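Title: Prediction job returns without error message
Component: structure pipeline
Severity: low
Priority: P3
Assignee: unassigned

Description:
Job completed but the reporter wants confirmation the result is attached to the right record. Sequence as submitted:
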Amino acid sequence: MNKNPIEKLLWSIALPGFGQFLNRKYFKGTVLLILEFLVNVQANFNQVIIYSFHGEIQKAIEQTNYNWLMFYPCLYFFAMWDAYKDAGGGKKPNSFYPFAFAAFSVTVGLIYSSKIRLSGVLIGPVWLPIMFVIPGVIMGLTIQKITNRTIKQTAF
C-alpha cells in the first residue's frame, strides 16, 4: 500500500474521508464523509460557494447557516491531519499544531466573515475563512517549533 502522507493529505483536502479510505480506515472515512455531507447540506455551503464565486457576497451571507458551518473547519482539518498521520506523516511531536491552529483561525474568520470589509467590500463566508488558513498554519508551525525546541532542551 502506498504510504505517501502528502497524497493522503491532498485527497482529504479534496473531500474529508477520502484520505481515510486510501489508508484503509473505512469506518472512519465513512463517518467523516457522512459528517461532511451533513454539515455541507445543513449549512447551504454549496449555494454559498456558488454565490461567492459569482461575487454575490451579500446573498452568500444570507444563505449561510452559520450554526452548521461553524463545524466545517474542525471537521475538515481533523480529516486532513488524521489521514496525514495514519499514512506515516507527522513524525515530529506536536505535528497536529498547524492543523489545529488552522481550524481555529478559519473558524475565527468565519465568525467575522459577515462584518470584515477590505476596501469597503465584504469578503464573505468563503473567502475570509480561506484567507485565515495561512496565518493559522504559520502560527501552528511556529508554536510547534517552539514547543519541540523546549522538549529537546528539557530532555537533556
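Comment from assignee: result matches the submitted record. Residues 5-155 form one domain.
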